[in-house]
Amino acid sequence: MAELGKGVTAGKLALNVQKRLNRAQEKVLQKLGKADETRDSAFEELVANFNKQMTEGSKVQRDLKAYLAAVKAMHDASRRLQDCLADMYEPDWFGKEELDAQVEEMIEKELDNNLEDTDTLWMDYHQNLTDKSLLGLDTYLAQFPEIKARLAKRDRKLVDFDSARHHFASLQKGKKKDEAKIAKAEEELGRAQRIFEELNVELQDELPVLWDSRVGVYVGTFQSLAGHQEKFHREMSKLSHNLNDIMTKLEEQQQLKKDATAAAKKGGSKSEEANHSQASSPAPKKPGPPPSRPPPRLSPSPDPKQQIAALLEDEAAAPDSDSDPTSTTQQSSVTNGADAELPPGFLYKVKAVHEYTATDNDELELKVGDAVLVLAFDNPEEQDDGWLLGVKEAHWFLKKDISAKGVFPENFTQKV
């Protein structure tokens, strides 16, 4: 007999065609109610669970792949944005003459490292999700097509079994009984029943196990997803914080440059104005460092911004120099403590126009705007040139405690 294809002869082809015709005929008879159909409700429930499980698993797989595609797209977008920032970040923004070149180099190095770490973090995140979540889900779903094919084969063998059963029954009920045909039909029925039951038993064992495995698969998939998400966002938060710090440094250095330029312009304007008004009023003096005290005290230098503020306040206080000398004399008189609102030895009050950080235990720390009650030294020989003794007004009126007194540089304050 001539072969029609590899392993397929005309006889096998005819046999397959005949089987299909018999199955189609059997299904028609069953639908018309002319032939009974073997039903197994327990197995049908297993099949329904299988179909549901396959649908849900396929949906999770599809959505997880879409999530990974979104992560990849976000990585690409983040990389392009970071590259754009790196291209825009130029050292001359800071001004090489005004700012420390080492600081600029450090900031640029931090930026490069931050961008590289961000790119690596995105790649690791995508790779970990692929390896630990998606591949496990793919392995789980890979077994469904083979089981689905065996379920379809089981359905065909069930129809063959029903068909053989009906054929055998019809021969037995016939008026003319052909023993040879009955024996052959019985043999075919036994073979069809054996094939069907083998498949049926195998699937009855495998489907419940497969159904129960879905919980472990989903737990592993989403635990892995959540763990890698948590790690990614934690590390990304650190990198984002670093990037924010870098941008803050850039903003601060740019602001310092603007402030220095503005101070230089303002100082030049004041110098020019002072030269024109020398005949009418003396030029204001810039406050210098506090007078030197005996060691180990140091002589701090006032902040440049505070110098500018002092210039303005000195100008505002200049007209007070023409006030009544009698009033000044009265303010300078030492009180003997009879006035309960003033500390013993009170001379006059001053206001801090510059911050001063104490460098010794007997010194008074000043902040701009602090009001200080100046006191007379118990022993005038202890007074150093350019230094005053006093107690903060707020502290005195709150606690009436003279022990909080201390010395401070006179040129950091202004008499009020």
Automatic annotation (TrEMBL):
Pfam family, one: SH3_2
Composition skew (Acidic residues), residue ranges: 312-323
InterPro entries: AH/BAR_dom_sf, Amphiphysin, BAR_dom, SH3-like_dom_sf, SH3_domain
Compositional bias ranges of the Pro residues kind: 284-303
GO cellular component, one term: nucleus
GO MF term list: phospholipid binding; tau protein binding
Coiled coil (residue ranges): 168-202
Listed SMART domains: BAR (SM00721), SH3 (SM00326)
Subcellular location(s) of the protein: Cell membrane, Sarcolemma, T-tubule; Cytoplasm; Endosome; Nucleus
Main location: membrane
Protein name per its UniProtKB record: Myc box-dependent-interacting protein 1
Annotated source species: Xiphophorus maculatus (Southern platyfish)
All residue ranges annotated as the BAR domain in the record: 28-256
GO BP term, example: establishment of localization in cell
Domain SH3: 345-416
Stretch forming the signal peptide: none
Keywords: Acetylation, Cell membrane, Coiled coil, Cytoplasm, Developmental protein, Differentiation, Endocytosis, Endosome, Membrane, Nucleus, Phosphoprotein, SH3 domain
Annotated stretches, region: Disordered: 254-342
Low complexity: bias regions: 324-333
